[in-house]
Write a structure and sequence with these properties.
Elements (H helix, E strand, L loop, with lengths): L6 E9 L3 H12 L5 E9 L5 H11 L4 E6 L4 H9 L6 E6 L3 E2 L3 H11 L5 E9 L5 E4 L11 H5 L10 E3 H6 L11 H12 L2 E12 L13 H15 L5 H21 L2
Parallel strand pairs: 1-2, 1-4, 2-3, 6-9
Antiparallel strand pairs: 4-8, 5-9, 6-7, 6-8
Helix pairs in contact: 8-9
Length: 265
């Protein structure tokens, strides 16, 4: 790490029974070219030795690594337990089986310095498998910046995977919604887009691991219900947008819900 001052950001890493992946995730944050203020390791009742690993990291990095240990709260509540005690001006979330690239925090801090009014900075990311093979990048073109409420509400998923957000804005939004366990990050992103400006770094700064036990492959039957709930909220949150955009949102969400319904049988 260089001698530059730490980035005033708290990174929350969620953990549940993926000890080896968790070690890689933590090391990817410790290896950042710019240090975060703190790393909160939020474990949700692991039984595979992850808790001991987390406590070892806290002993090795006192004042930097903070253990947040619970018993089966579910993903949103586990994340919230760490977000609520975060000390940084900004917060970011990393799933315990994903990785930050070494310059993620440096690049995103630079972006926030260029656009200090932004409430969120996000980036591109890549998917990779357990053989370390890159599958694809998330975006093939630069993504929207500035007032992005329409773009995000138009079913622009997965921004939370890479974003750094202002802690006060996350708090004002009410943190993650436990009633939306698979889409808690998506709904929070929509709320943040309604609250202020986004800025974007057109680089791959996070690597998302694709594996059969990943959360993105679980709880498929809940998709239709949760996305329907989000759409009802989106309609209320975007009612002030131009009529043409509201029509576009309605069309887009009808297609999303129909596709999910068909997929779930």
């Amino acid at each position: 790490m260089n001698s530059d001052a730490p980035f005033d950001v708290s990174i929350v890493i969620t953990s549940f029974n993926h000890r080896d992946y968790l070690v890689e995730a933590v090391e990817s944050v410790l290896a950042q070219t710019v240090k975060p203020r703190e790393i909160l390791l939020a474990d949700d009742g692991s039984t595979d030795g992850s808790v001991e690993t987390i406590r070892n990291y806290a002993d090795l990095h006192p004042g930097c690594v903070v253990p947040v240990i619970h018993e089966n709260m579910g993903i949103p509540r586990n994340r919230n337990s760490a977000l609520k005690i975060a000390k940084g001006r900004y917060v970011g979330v990393l799933d315990g089986d994903d990785l930050f690239r070494p310059q993620k925090l440096e690049r995103q801090r630079e972006a926030l310095r260029r656009d200090p009014d932004a409430v969120v900075v996000y980036s591109n990311y890549s998917n990779f498998n357990n053989r370390r093979r890159n599958i694809s990048n998330r975006y093939n073109a630069p993504q929207p910046q500035g007032d992005v409420l329409f773009d995000v509400a138009n079913a622009h998923f997965a921004i939370m995977r890479t974003m750094i957000a202002r802690t006060d804005a996350v708090k004002a939004a009410g943190f993650m919604d436990p009633e939306l366990p698979k889409y808690d990050g998506f709904w929070l992103t929509i709320q943040l887009a309604a609250a202020g400006r986004f800025t974007y770094v057109d680089e791959v700064l996070v690597d998302k691991r694709e594996h059969p036990s990943g959360d993105s492959n679980l709880n498929m039957s809940q998709d239709f219900k949760d996305l329907g709930t989000i759409y009802e909220r989106v309609k209320a949150l975007t009612a002030h947008l131009p009529a043409a955009q509201c029509v576009q949102l309605e069309t887009r969400w009808a297609a999303v819900l129909e596709r999910v319904k068909a997929r779930n049988g």
